[in-house]
Amino acid sequence: MYRFLMSRQWVILTLVALLLIPTMIRLGIWQMHRYEERTARNQLVTDALAAEPVPVEKLTAPGHTVTSAERYRTVTAKGRFDTGDEVVVRRRTNAADEVGYHVLTPFVLEDGKVLLVNRGWIPSDGPSQRAFPKVPAPPGGTVTVKGRLMPDETTEASGIKNLQGLPDRQIMLINSEREARRLDVRVLGGYIAQTAPEPEGDTPQLLGDPGKEDAALNYAYAVQWWLFSAAVPVGWVILARREARERAQAAAGAAGSAETQPAAV
């Protein structure tokens, strides 16, 4: 009854099924790894945001690379804003996906070191983005700022190309080492995304809380791939039994037709 399984068509179908099963299982395992990685990163964000604020120099120093455990930690700093060396970061969007700039202002600490402060988002003045935009002034004098500690930006991590030949006082990526060379001062590693003082009047829009990755989606994909892998052998059996049944019915019909034929005289 099942001798048709040795036909060329069924041998190819069986080989394809045998290849699909382990492939789908491996894809499910990969998605589960992605789920675990994203869950771990989300937990780091949650822990960092829940931690008590600490002075910035407890977590970073000139030349320091901000780690994943330090990222998003709330830090405080006391000093003054230096708007004379302020720059803007091009091609940044706000919550409404409007394209503009981030305002990056050096913040001179009491010991003379500099902390880079991303004061928030401002709209672009026009389509050319060649002229330096109108930037609202920060508070004057000695102030205490609070913000989330962030690592230096790189093309590899952000996907943003570090273009050359930009207009004066415009940059693509926030990098403390480059800013230290430009300013010729000691700059703390990384930068902070300012969260306080709260905006007053015509000031940059503070950046929102960091979003969390959708780890549940990867979990759903993993289960989906494993269900697909289980469905392949089930589907193969259903197809094989259906063809066997159809062949048996066809054979029975042919035999019945032969029996009803009149005998030759």
Structure description:
The chain is of the alpha/beta class and 265 residues long. It has a domain of 144 residues. Helix content is 38%, strand content 20%. The protein has 4 helices and 8 strands; from the N terminus they run αββββββαβαβα. It has a 5-stranded mixed β-barrel with strand order 2-4-5-8-6. Strand 3 and strand 4 form a beta hairpin. The longest helix has 45 residues. It starts with 7 loop residues before the first helix and ends in a 6-residue tail after the last helix. The mean pLDDT is 90. It is found in: Cell membrane; Membrane. InterPro entries: Surf1/Shy1, Surf1/Surf4.
List the helices and strands and how they pair.
Elements: H1 8-50, E1 54-55, E2 74-81, E3 87-93, E4 99-109, E5 114-123, E6 143-150, H2 155-158, E7 170-171, H3 176-183, E8 191-196, H4 215-259
Parallel strand pairs: 1-2, 3-7, 5-8
Antiparallel strand pairs: 2-4, 2-6, 3-4, 4-5, 6-8
Keywords: Cell membrane, Membrane, Transmembrane, Transmembrane helix
Family: Belongs to the SURF1 family.
Membrane topology: Multi-pass membrane protein
Q: Using DSSP, what is the number of strands?
A: 8
In helices, the fraction of residues equals 25-40%
Mean pLDDT across the residues is 90
Main sheet summary: 5 strands, mixed, barrel
Distance between the termini: 35 Å
**Net shape:** elongated
Q: Oligomeric status of the shown chains?
A: single chain
- Based on secondary structure, the structural category is alpha/beta
Unreliable spans are none
Count every helix, treating DSSP H or I runs of 4 or more residues as helices: 4
Order of helices and strands: HEEEEEEHEHEH
Give the percentage of residues in beta strands: 15-25%
What's the Cα radius of gyration? 32 Å
Neighbour order of strands in the largest sheet: 2-4-5-8-6
